[in-house]
Give the backbone structure.
Amino acid sequence: MELENKIEITTQFLDDSQIISKTGSWNWNVVTNEVIWSKNMFRLLGLAPDEVAPSYELALHHVCDSDKKRYEETLSQALENKTDYYFENKIVQKDKTVISVVSSGKCILDENQNLIRMIGIVQDISIQKEIDKIKEERQRAEDRDKVKSLIIKMIAHDIKNPFHHINGFSELLIDNIQNKDFEDAITYGKIIHKATNQTLKTLDSLLQWAFTGSNSSTFNRVTIAPKNLVDEVLEFLTVHLIKKNLLIKNLITPNTRIEADKHMLTSILRNLISNAIKYCERDGEITIALQSKNNQTQISISDTGVGIAPEVLKNIFDPSKIFSKEGTEQEKGSGLGLQICKALVDRHDGEIWFESEIGIGTTCYFTLSKNEIDQRKE
């Protein structure tokens, strides 16, 4: 009697354990085709214990139609090779409720290595699947928020600076009009008009990206003519270039093509060329070049400016040590530009770094994960 009580207690303990762990077990005698299910195996299928006779065919009947073929192939392969199996699938309960489960089985062999039995478990992982889904949705929301934050910083950074120079030229324009120097007034008026149009065009482009980018954390890789893109950026920065009388050398060949996100690459170039202008003395020189290196596209922006101190250079991309220094003509900055560039280069699986010498100048290099496509005409 005591032994029977122990067996009953143990059986109840195992049943309770399977209920808590949402697990059902089965035992299949492949010689006699006899199948035994635990009580909770019945429950996982939405059946009452011992409601029907367990069988392989009944188990297959409850496997979701989209998983049936894989279920049969996996089980057949395990039987043929006398190996274990493990895979995720869905099952349909008696009331048509669909749950996600992990199914696994183990082959039992006799002393002659003949397959005599297969045992296994089925575990309901629906709750874990829902938790994973919530985590993925939360991560996507966080990614969208990061993109929105980055775009807002870019709009503030890329649009604010041109207006400082437009304001300066408008003051000169007023002085010229007051002094009746109409020839220079017309020149400055044209500069202001061109700079304003370029700034509005850039703002419109950034806003369009904001509307699309806020709905997706991925970027849109397209084929780009980098020389044309650099020329567009230089046109946007015309006011800055005129003010310092800088010589620009765009050495990228007209027929070169690369693959990148156009909005992101434009912002990278705009920020880096703006920095080169900022730290150049009057009558300085800026050179933009591109080369294919180590299966990557490498773009460089070199200037003949004041250079960067070694202690600043080693921490230049450290977000906790944002670098911001006045330009050669007291141009202000927030230090966000390089942080934006680093984030956008990272999105292209690239790298960004500086080489600099005080009093000689600075070169910024960055890479993109795709090779340039050389389309020079023969």
